[in-house]
Write a structure and sequence with these properties.
- This protein is α/β, with parallel strands linked by helices and 383 residues long.
- It contains 16 helices and 13 strands.
- The strands form 3 sheets. Strands 6, 7, 8, 9, 10, 11, 12 and 13 form an 8-stranded mixed beta sheet that branches. A 3-stranded parallel beta sheet has the order 1-3-5, sandwiched between helices. A two-stranded parallel ribbon has the order 2-4.
- α12 crosses α14.
- It is globular and about 80 Å long.
């Protein structure tokens, strides 16, 4: 309250300090079920997950009246602090609940994948016997050509136990999908490019979303499974001015610093720096598998052909047909997963039907992984 003066600020400060002390030690989940204004909003912001109810809940630093007085702009509570706004635009809210009861259900679902603290393993329920049978049904979900978008959500549902996937930040930065699941009983954090949104290209928001999720999983010993279908970082003046270099570097930093088991599956495209940013072998992946449809290269075939074969295209009678021919040659010579495998950059080329079995076997082998790093106070993540 305003009349509490500096005593109120001191109380806030103590809460924030303890939020930070507990960060990475125990999971912290905030449920916003009513007004959360001014300094009070920083405590949930310091926690791991925020669940906000659709009705009667608002979160903001300065409300419409203050904004009007200072800037002259007229706004509404919904515009500056609703659950919908925070879940889709600001990215502050991870889950939107229908009501208080639903919010508690979401919190319980989250906790079912987490250990009580950072010294424990997550609550794995490993199958007594691994099921290594092939899932031929997954083939029906894969488009015939890489130029067609592929919805990664059904792919994820085929890989996880009983199709149960708890998606985090579902409404924000849809070009990357993150969430929790189990694969043959083992708790995992999944990150996957979604080519239905911005062709799956990484941008500022997707980088922040992915990096935050990786950091949480690493803090609480949750293995990471990465599904790659990324054409690159999103080009554009807004992205460059917004700091895509710094934000994209967060993905590199968090993957490289993570010491939990890291398994990467290259589904289709994996181009340039975004290939590395999605946990390539060089970023510390313990196992990297690729589908035969994978394309691993510095850049896409179409763009590379225009640079490498400029003179041939200029001299061709049918430029389009020649470009198609050269693109096919480029894919076979420079982008084939078999070429990457021959050089030791990926562990193996696998059939899509074997993906779930391959991940499950790799996870079982890596559950006892322990990795020591050089002693230091902390790294300097590019915030």
């Amino acid at each position: 309250r305003i009349q509490e003066a500096v005593d109120a600020l001191s109380g806030y400060g103590e809460v924030f300090y303890n939020n930070v002390l507990l960060s990475g030690v125990v999971p912290q989940i905030a449920i916003i079920a009513g007004p959360c204004a001014g300094g009070a909003s920083y405590s949930p912001a310091l926690m791991d997950f925020i669940i906000m109810t659709k009705q009667n809940a608002y979160m903001f630093i300065t409300g419409p009246e203050v904004i009007k007085a200072v800037t002259g702009r007229t706004t509404s509570l919904d515009e500056v602090g609703s659950a919908q706004m925070h879940a889709t635009i600001s990215g502050n809210v991870h889950f939107v609940a229908e009501d208080d009861r639903h919010a508690i259900q979401i919190a319980k679902a989250l906790l079912s994948y987490m250990p009580s603290n950072n010294t424990e393993d997550p609550p794995h329920r490993p199958y007594p016997d691994l099921d290594l049978s092939a899932d031929e049904g997954i083939n029906a979900l894969i488009p015939e050509t890489s130029s067609e978008p592929m919805d990664v959500q059904p792919i994820i549902k085929r890989l996880v136990d009983n199709g149960q996937f708890l998606e985090v930040h579902a409404g924000w930065a849809g070009n990357i999908v993150v969430g929790f699941a189990r694969i043959q009983g083992t708790v995992v954090g999944i990150l996957a490019n979604q080519s239905l949104v911005k062709a799956g290209a990484m941008d500022i928001d997707a980088s922040d979303k992915g990096a935050r999720f990786i950091r949480f999983c690493n803090a609480f010993n949750i293995p990471l499974v990465t599904l790659v279908d990324v054409p690159g970082f999103l080009p554009g003046i807004e992205q460059e001015r917004g700091g895509i270099i710094r934000h994209g570097a967060k993905m590199l930093y968090t993957y490289a610093s993570a010491t939990v088991p890291k398994i990467t599956i290259i589904l289709r495209k994996a181009y340039g720096g975004s290939y590395l940013a999605m946990c390539a072998q060089e970023m510390g992946a313990d196992a990297v598998y690729a589908w035969p449809t994978a394309e691993i290269a510095v850049m896409g075939a179409e763009g590379a052909v225009n640079i490498l074969y400029r003179s041939e295209l200029k001299a061709a009678e049918d430029r389009k047909a020649k470009a198609t021919e050269l693109a096919a040659e480029y894919r076979a010579k420079f982008a084939s997963p078999y070429m990457s495998a021959s050089r030791g950059y990926i562990t193996d080329v696998i059939e899509p039907a074997d993906t779930r079995a391959t991940i499950a076997l790799a996870l079982r082998k890596l559950l006892t992984k322990r990795e020591l790093r050089p002693a230091k106070k902390h790294g300097d993540i590019p915030l």
